[in-house]
Amino acid sequence: MAGGNGGKGKGKKSHSPTKRQRKTQKLSVTYEASDHEKGEGAKPPEAPGWEPRDWQQQLVNIRTMRSGKDAPVDQLGAEHCYDPSAPPKVRRYQVLLSLMLSSQTKDQVTAGAMQRLRARGLTVDSILQTDDSTLGTLIYPVGFWRSKVKYIKQTSAILQQRYGGDIPASVAELVALPGVGPKMAHLAMAVAWGTVSGIAVDTHVHRIANRLGWTKTATKSPEKTRAALEAWLPRELWSEINGLLVGFGQQTCLPVHPQCQACLNRSLCPAARSLCGP
Ligand code: SF4
Question: Would the CB of 265 count as within 6 Å of ligand 1?
């Protein structure tokens, strides 16, 4: 997920919660029951398998580098784009919409589009009553905005017809919606429903996992990286990984010219030498 300052304008301010409200609105994270927890017929736990060398120290180092919480994703990610004072169903819809807008788009641009949409009252009904041209103007310049107008309209109509204006509460139903991919679905489950369903892998997580050697073999797509990470990363860390690595990718482990000289993982990173020299 991505970052800008579009969400820090006047409109955002008018919706800003007090500190106390922020605290009370924080979504608690629960975990889906594992096979083991579901009881009869459950498989025995598997023996510990492969895990990357040094991953625990690498993770500690990334947490240290991210301790300032000052990356774009920390202020403008999907969990910051919805109106915390809106009814739960509306909040969940806004979370999904911000995720749909965020693909191939910087967080700053997504936040700006969400601010403009929220200023008009962002609900399933209001979107369905907005003509395509106006919706396009409101979300421009998010990436692929023309396609997103179409997907947002189609998804909103489905949500109204099949889900009473709410969003579905499973990854399978979420990815069946037009314009919703696996990363968005897992983030929607975490942010909107407070359920950890899987690791949300975007281009940042995909790139960094491969650079650090967190996949047993190199992976070619975010979905393959998600499966590779879920094979060894303890489940209690799944919800943390997306925000942690996205911000790390925005500030330090950049797609081009990563800041290896300033990275605490330099001596532990298999990619450092080839990317930044000895
Ligand atoms: S050493 Fe460089 S490539 Fe490795 S994690 Fe740090 S910034 Fe990324």
Answer: yes
